[in-house]
Amino acid sequence: MPKFRLISLCLLLALMVSSPLQSFSYADEKEKDEDYYQMMKLFADTYEQIERNYVKDIDRRVLLEAAIRGMVQELDQYSSYISPKDLSRFNQVVEQEFGGIGIQVHIDDQNGRLTVMTPLPGTPAYKAGIRAGDIIDSIEGKSTKGFTLSQAIKILKGREGEKVKMAVIHKGTNKSIPLTVQREIIHVATVLGDTYKEDDSWDYMYDKKAKIGYIRLTHFSRHSAEELRAAIEDLEKQGLKGLILDLRFNPGGLLSQATEISDMFIESGKIVSTEGRNSRNRKWEATSDNTFKDFPMAILVNRYSASASEIVSACLQDHKRAVIIGERTWGKGSVQNVIELEDGDSALKLTTASYHRPSGKNIHRFPGAKDTDVWGVTPNEGYRLRLTDDEMETLGEYRRNRDILDHTAKLDTEFKDKQLNLALDYIKEQLSGKGKPADKEADKKAEKKPAAKEEKPAKKAAVVPAPAGNPLVIRTT
């Protein structure tokens, strides 16, 4: 038997054996098997023809992975194939942990050099004296001139305990200083405050006189609930009276963290439910243990708040625990499971279920959905405040500058975050006794009104947009 035919038949057999068969009558099952056989034969024959007769050699794995990606792309924008070379980075995004030195870097648009945006508090880079604005002159003896971010990250990341040799030029100097930094497991915090305190920890108390806390949640990763509880407990020790939870630009993350965080703020009732074609329907209920309940809350959202962000904001809105402020959210109401392939060397991120808010309303924005349809999470009546694209860019730049760990830097005190200020006004009204949460009648009136027309967001929502004409890409290592 020719080699190529043998390969095709083996591939066909493997695909058929691995496919789960459902129970049908004998005739239906036989017909289904025949259709399945013909489809797999078509795939195997196509694979063989390309490998055998294409104008130049092509790697078999490249062909197979392209076929898998093609299948997945027919499903939806959230399902994807994760190849072995991409799996490590995917896991790092989920876990927010990796072996590295603990800095955020970018290519400076003024000099084109690899530059430190900020070190992360307490990391090897920070302890070694690397500071915001430093130029990384060389890594392992290689000049970084012309380096891409991907090249730099690949060299700087590595196993815990290993050392990396580098040279840096401190901001304001011209001298290249050699450093040897030992890699550690870097934990990227997902719970942030407004500014750093003198001890390099985040300051979560935004208004010290009124005792109003402010916490930003950037992702829902493995330790987010744990980090958030610690931050609120720290605020309570300072006499917390009101809390603003900022979920703007939060693209989502782990469902388990969304349900755990929601449970922190309500004592009973449904948090979220999921329904799938081939997975059992599930419902998450709140418990009364360790609930934060004795202070008013406002949640900030925008058109880039998605998935797990929408679970939390929808839950707390439906239970009247928090007022939602800002603009209508992204509209992602689907659940993806990560299924291991090749004994864990690759993976399939597959949409397996949809989720629904406690009220039963839809969150997912289906293709072709109109602005007047029900999707996403809409801010409470009287608290809708949409920023223009220019305002969004200015907010992003303002936020990045405040996130730099540099106690000598002068912080901008002129910029006004209109959405945050509206949240502050709401909390202060609640504390003064003059305001009251949106009641059922107000909610009914809001439902009757058509939703404000929303601009369609970009296809991906993961980071704060950079100013127009000056794209900024930041990576952490």
UniProtKB/TrEMBL annotation:
Region (Disordered) residue spans: 432-477
GO MF: serine-type endopeptidase activity
SUPFAM superfamilies xrefs: ClpP/crotonase, PDZ domain-like
Compositional bias per record (Basic and acidic residues), positions renumbered to this chain: 436-458
An example Gene Ontology CC term for this record: outer membrane-bounded periplasmic space
InterPro entries: ClpP/crotonase-like_dom_sf, CtpA/B_N, PDZ, PDZ_6, PDZ_sf, Peptidase_S41A, Tail-specific_protease
Keyword annotations: Hydrolase, Protease, Serine protease, Signal
Superkingdom as given in the UniProt entry: Bacteria
PANTHER family cross-referenced by the UniProt entry: CARBOXY-TERMINAL PROCESSING PROTEASE CTPA, TAIL-SPECIFIC PROTEASE
Family in the record: Belongs to the peptidase S41A family.
The name this protein goes by in its record: Carboxy-terminal processing protease CtpA
Source species of the chain: Gimesia panareensis
Lineage of the organism: Bacteria, Pseudomonadati, Planctomycetota, Planctomycetia, Planctomycetales
